[in-house]
Structures are given as C-alpha cells and as structure tokens.
Amino acid sequence: MVELRIGNPVRGQVLAERARLADTFWTRAVGLLGSRDVGGGLVLEPCSSVHTWFMGYAIDVLFLDLNGRVLAVYAAMPPWRMTRWVRGATRVVELAAGGARATEVGDQLECVPCALS
C-alpha cells in the first residue's frame, strides 16, 4: 500500500507522516469503515464527496484540487454525516479530528510518497 506524507508548507505543518492512499474502487469504498481510528490518515483519490456513516468517531476532511489547493475543510465532522459534492475536488484527505489544525481554504498542500522502509 502506498503511503503519503501530507504537508502544509503555507502553515509550516506536517498533517500526516504516513497517510494511506485509497485509489481503487474497493479501497475508496471501504475507506475508514470498521476502523477504530484514522491512524496516520487516509487519502481518497479520485473523490469529491465523503460520508461518515457507520463510523464511531469524528474526522477532519480536506478537499483538494488537482494541484493540492484546499477547496473545502470540514473540521471534526461527526459520525452519520455526509459532505456536499465539492466542485473541482479530485482528492480528499481524512485526518483525526483536530488533525487539520489551522489549514484553511486556499492553502496549498504537498502530498509526497513516503520513502520505502
């Protein structure tokens, strides 16, 4: 499985050291369902809308365009919710609630593959 380091150079923050990439139909469909926590984070690609049905915890959700620009932020999105469709979004980053910290719409994120261990 591919893991990505997610950084926000605009804010000088690392949002995730090892976020898992979900880029197939099956990995996107399963996402975080059945997990106890977000772990290092999850990146869904392609993706322009998410839900937290059947989840037992809140998550931060960042919608990114093709260039990594943040188009929408859902902070501490509780279970049993659904986002709207975000126009132009091609990738979604899901983090533990509070993990997006001060990330704002318009910030440019970097999603870089982690070095192999």
What is the C-alpha radius of gyration, as a whole number of Å? Answer: 13 Å
Read across the widest sheet, the strand sequence of neighbours is 5-4-6-3-2-1-7
Task: Count all strands and give the number.
Answer: 7
Please state the average pLDDT score. 93
- Our measurement of the CA-to-CA distance between the termini, rounded to an integer number of angstroms, reads 12 Å
Sequence stretches where pLDDT stays below 50 over 5 or more residues = none
Major sheet: 7 strands, mixed
Beta-strand share of residues: 35-45%
Q: Assign the structural class, choosing from mainly alpha, mainly beta, alpha/beta, alpha+beta, or little secondary structure.
A: mainly beta
CATH topology: Jelly Rolls
Indicate the overall shape.
globular
CATH architecture identity: Sandwich
Number of alpha- plus pi-helical segments: 1
How many distinct folded domains?
1
Keywords, separated by commas or semicolons:
1 helix, seven-stranded mixed beta sheet, 5% helix, 7 strands, mainly beta, 117 residues, Jelly Rolls
